[in-house]
Amino acid sequence: MIKRQWLSYLFWTSFKIGLAVAAVIAVYAIYLDATLSKHFKTERYQAPALVYAGELRVYPGYPLQQSTLIKTLERIGYNRSNNTEQSGYYSVGNDSVMVHRRPFDFSDGPQMSKRVQVHFVNDRVASITSWPSGRELDSFRLEPELIGRISTLSKEDRLLVGLEVVPNLLIETLLQVEDRNFYHHKGVSPWAILRALVANLRAGRTVQGGSTLTQQLVKNLYLTREQTLWRKFHEAMMSLVIDYRFDKNTILETYLNEVYFGQDGRNAIHGIGLASQFYFGKQVQELSVDEVALLIGMIKGPSYYDPRRFPERAQERRDTVLKVMFDQDLIAKSTYVAAVQRQLDVRESRRLVEHPYPHYMDIIKREMKTLALPEDWQDTGLKIYTHMDVNAQEAVQKSLARKLTDDDSTLEGAMVVANYRQGTITALAGGRLSQTVGYNRALMALRPIGSLIKPVIYATAMQESGIGLHTPVVDEAITLEDKRGKTWQPQNYDTEFKGSLLLYDALVQSRNIPAVRVGVEVGVDTVVDYMKRLGVVTPLEEYPSLTLGSASLTPFAVTRMYSALMNDGRFQSLSAISSITTHQGDVLYRTPEKSTSQVFDSKVAYLTKFGLHGVVAEGTASALQRVLAGQQVGGKTGTTNDYRDSWFVAVDGEQVVTAWLGRDDNQPTGLTGSSGALRVVADYYERKPPLSVALEVPEPLKMQRFHERTGQRIPNDCGNGELLPAEEIRLPDNITCAGNIEEKSWWDRLFGG
């Protein structure tokens, strides 16, 4: 009787406890369902902003050397081979390059792989042929280089990919290795746990895990790695909830984007999309059989099977996975044998971004702050496509480093390259250490610009007063009051005065006094107004000293100002970002058509461009000609007091190139614009030849000859004077080459001779 009572008590007590436990579990499950499901749906992980350089788009007639294309292909990870049947390979002929472009998600949508042959003649693209069809193509573009990333707060890097782009072989192999019953269990597999327990007991150590893909995902997303019963229970409950609320494909896609694959410095590489780029420089859909096997094998232990640190161990693990693929009829025997015999072939670099450009990234981050991007963009990740020309950027960094290395260690510098037609920033470096984060002088260093202001002064005078390059200006001593009310007597660099000379010659020779006189005459306040219309936003003091470049601007501001001068007098903002999408390709931002404001009319803009060409052709920047190989380029040198700042701005057929050299402590450098910054630009042009600036004379201007002192129109066949563009001026009768009217004799007057 007592035994029955005891059993009854035990039964009811156990029943009540069971009900209580069930109730607690039910409440806990409801809580998990309410919180975990929402979090899993909208905040599964964070994805970085991946930043890409501008794409290389070529077309027949495009100026491109064969060696430059080869260099570009090597940099973005293409392999040279006689066999280009697979994407990611190229071959080289005498005057051609065969390229099998990888598939890539461009800013305007995904593009499939494409095989083309690019033919060259005289350092230009002669034709582009689709292979093997032989069809002539109008253009061809290469995928851009990954140049940087803006990481999340979690320091987790990933490239989100959908199941539709992941190869079926990868998915099938993953399921065979990690969770064969994935599509049949409810998030937890008791049989897998029992099977793993038996295997581990037999081996006397942990040789097999019983976790499903869902459990692995939960552990990676939400839990620590501590081995306790409570954590395992928590993991199981969360897995059941997720499996109940979400379909299997969503869970699998999340797993593929979350799984850990190693470290890039302090940043963790997550997801199959980024891992394929990190280890192979490929998109996931390009992976070969052996590459798929290696990545799946690494899931078990990314550090332990790191192919760069432990290649033998990694290859053994890869071959084990290949055996599974063969045994499960995922690959044929011939494929299996070939894959096993293949050596590991991973990228040597342990960095996802092999060539960092932190100073260019600086301007990307500044622009991002001005755009209306979603606050939760880290949920979807970003792909930021930029206007950077990697070849130009490399040339800028090398040219600047070469000059700064040749001089003492206290000399600093900055360079900016912009396409003035498109209003884009193609290259930027803010110091000698242009590959490390630091003070970005290109964007932040406010330095007096010296003679760089002279083209603006003369353009302002031509716009306001109707004068031209043929107008005589005065080069004689002048006394003015400085900003403190003291008398100021500006000097020319040679301390001499030439009396009268043409405005063109004053600009070409960079004479100070004519610039001061013209600037004061047109009004310093007027010059300041035009500078503001050219994009200058820093405060400018309206004192006469401004006419000799006392205004302090950054190299970027100088580039923006000269870009307007070259863009037919139209100002437009300069931008580095072309478009932004999510990792899945949804467009968030695309650069709108740029608005422009007409600062100088096209006639004044052309006259200014002609004068800048003269500076290089025969003036203070004539030393640049040695590297131009006959190309027409303009420019302007700039030197400030006591040789503290050395400036040079070059303008060619499409770009403005600005270089500045100086010291952060503002001490003298001993360099003029010609002996310092000009040499940096010359080195740049040796690495990246310029396009000729267009100098065809537009209507209503015509080339006419003018006396070099008086500006008097003289016959074009005279041996003296200057041949300059100007609106047509009727030639007086009997004008001499000296600019005088020759009086006719009585005989000529009588007989009309």
Q: Give unreliable regions as ranges.
A: 196-201, 204-208
What's the CATH architecture name of the largest domain?
A: 3-Layer(aba) Sandwich
Q: Kindly report the average pLDDT value.
A: 88
Q: What's the CATH C level of the largest domain?
A: Alpha Beta
Specify the number of helices: 22
Total domain units: 5
The percent range for strand residues is 15-25%
Structural class: alpha+beta
How do the helices and strands line up, and which of them pair or pack?
Layout: H1 2-42, E1 49-52, E2 56-58, H2 66-75, E3 79-80, E4 89-92, E5 96-101, E6 104-106, E7 109-111, E8 114-121, E9 124-130, E10 140-142, E11 146-150, E12 156-157, H3 168-178, H4 190-203, H5 213-222, H6 229-245, H7 248-258, E13 260-264, E14 267-270, H8 272-280, H9 289-298, H10 311-327, H11 333-341, H12 358-368, E15 382-386, H13 390-406, E16 411-419, E17 424-429, H14 441-444, E18 447-448, H15 454-465, E19 472-475, E20 480-481, E21 487-488, E22 499-502, H16 503-508, H17 512-522, H18 524-533, E23 552-553, H19 555-566, E24 570-571, E25 577-582, E26 587-590, E27 597-598, H20 602-618, E28 634-639, E29 645-651, E30 655-663, H21 677-687, E31 701-706, E32 713-714, E33 722-727, H22 746-751
Overview of the structural elements:
This protein is an alpha+beta fold and 753 residues long. It folds into five domains: 2-44; 51-150, 2-Layer Sandwich (Penicillin-binding protein 1b fold); 156-212 and 247-341, Orthogonal Bundle (Penicillin binding protein transpeptidase fold), CATH 1.10.3810.10; 398-687, DD-peptidase/beta-lactamase superfamily (Beta-lactamase, 3-Layer(aba) Sandwich); 701-751, no CATH class. Helix content is 37%, strand content 19%. The chain contains 22 helices and 33 strands. Strand 25 (577-582) and strand 26 (587-590) form a beta hairpin. The longest helix is centred in the first third of the chain and has 41 residues, at 2-42.
